[in-house]
Design a protein that fits this description.
423 residues; alpha+beta; Rossmann fold; Dna Ligase, domain 1; D-amino Acid Aminotransferase, Chain A, domain 1; 4 domains; five-stranded antiparallel beta sheet; four-stranded parallel beta sheet; 14 helices; 21 strands
Length: 423
């Protein structure tokens, strides 16, 4: 008998994970909490707050779930895996102490340095004057990061020191990020293309997944504000499976050993955000979960059983699982609400999703949608849909993704037009 899986979360990443799990031979049923209209097409959805660990654990027990797959970072930091473990329910994701590697950028930097992993110079502080002094230590552009979780919007890259001081004051004085900005990391700027690399960990070992390239800025040409991500593609030329194999020894295994030495063996997904600098790859950040929207291009390329791999991470050894990949490329384009990443309206009717999904090689993942009282599909977030296509090459996948995206409409829709351009 296959496993009953509960996917925790309701965004595009969770829809992509649920979609791939639903096709996994080791999985019989996929449920989600709270889910979204896309996940609802795969199985039952439950109106449970994903950041309420006790409620999630009670739901998993009631539904006789075999494996809980936690998508977003907030439930991990809140300790949902700890509560599941207390009820002997296997879960994919780190316990709260491990998720601190995303919950605190200062903690992550300390782990990187202690493990000997290459990263940028930094100063962590809660003091305004110390933060100002730290800015003087680094050349422009200046990097100012809120220490805690800020929905992907807590990083400011500033060309002028006056602007960087304003970023410090926004966090420490004006508290625009609340407690997440009560501490700051002022960091050396790393110059080069960013890369996203996922490692599925079992406490001591790791299996690296196919890399992806994402686009953080809101506007074409990497202009505008930082966002949670406006698109992605995979594979990445010059950064394939053979190229990243050495990063297992350089970054992932030393970090796993460091976490284990602190009494926190790390099971789950360890996401390394890297910058390919002139002196080699250097760590920008760690996340404790699959990236979004990178997941939407990585899992469509996975040929082997995702359920088996996540089960091995939660309960056994990832080295026992064979992971294989399709030769095709994948591209995803984010359709966002007008005004994102600032204020934006919700409840805006969406049309054309069924037409887009009907195209060969296309899958539209729901990121910020809901059904209104009349059953219409409407917007419910900043990033609304991830239009994903698989093709023989990145160029072909890109063409198909934009062709599908052209069929979807809602008032205020914004998207980048340069995702995977020129690859």
């Amino acid at each position: 008998m296959g496993k009953r899986v509960l996917v925790v979360g309701g965004g595009g990443r969770e829809h992509a994970l649920g979609w791939r799990l639903a096709t996994s031979p080791s999985v019989d049923a996929v449920e989600s909490a709270p889910g979204n209209p896309g996940l609802a097409d795969l199985g039952p959805v439950h109106a449970v707050d994903p950041s309420d660990p006790a409620a999630v654990a009670a739901l998993a027990q009631e539904r006789r779930i075999d494996l809980v797959v936690v998508g977003p970072e907030a439930p991990l930091v809140a300790g949902v895996v700890d509560h599941l473990q207390a009820r002997d329910i296997p879960a994919f994701g780190p316990v709260a102490a491990g998720a601190h590697i995303e919950g605190s950028k200062a903690f992550a930097k300390d782990i990187m340095v202690s493990a000997g992993a290459p990263t940028a110079g930094y100063v962590a502080t809660a003091d305004r004057d110390e933060a100002y002094a730290a800015l003087e230590r680094f050349a422009p552009p200046y990097v100012v990061k809120a220490d805690g979780l800020a929905a992907g919007k807590g990083v400011r890259i500033c060309d002028r020191i006056e602007e960087a001081r304003e970023a410090v004051d926004d966090a420490l004085v004006r508290r625009i990020f609340g407690e997440a900005g009560a501490n700051l990391v002022v960091e050396e700027f790393l110059d080069g293309p960013e890369r996203s690399l996922f490692g599925v960990c079992d406490g001591t070992d790791v299996v690296l997944l196919a890399p992806a390239q994402d686009y953080k800025r809101a506007l074409d040409g990497d202009g505008g504000l930082n966002t949670g991500g406006m698109g992605a593609y995979s594979p990445v030329p010059g950064f394939g499976l053979d190229d990243v194999a050495r990063l297992r020894e350089l970054i992932f295994l030393p970090v796993l050993r460091e976490l284990a030495s602190r009494g926190t063996p790390y099971r789950g997904l360890l996401y390394a955000g890297l910058v390919d600098t002139a002196t080699g790859p250097r760590l920008l950040e760690f996340n404790a979960r699959f990236g979004d929207p990178e997941t939407q291009v990585v899992v469509p390329r996975l040929a082997s059983d995702l359920g088996e791999l996540l089960w091995a991470s939660a309960t056994g050894s990832v080295s026992d699982v064979e992971v294989t990949w399709r030769d095709e490329a994948a591209v995803t384009v984010v359709l966002a609400s007008g005004g994102y990443p600032g204020d934006y309206p919700t409840g805006v009717p969406i049309t054309g999703v069924e037409d887009a999904n009907a195209l060969p090689g296309v899958q539209v993942f729901h990121a910020g949608t809901r059904r209104d009282a009349d059953g219409r599909l409407v917007t419910a977030g900043g990033r609304v849909l991830n239009v994903t296509a698989v093709g023989a090459t990145v160029t072909e996948a890109r063409r198909q993704a934009y062709d599908a995206a052209d069929r979807i409409a809602f008032d205020g829709l914004q998207r980048r037009s340069d995702i995977a351009a020129g690859i």
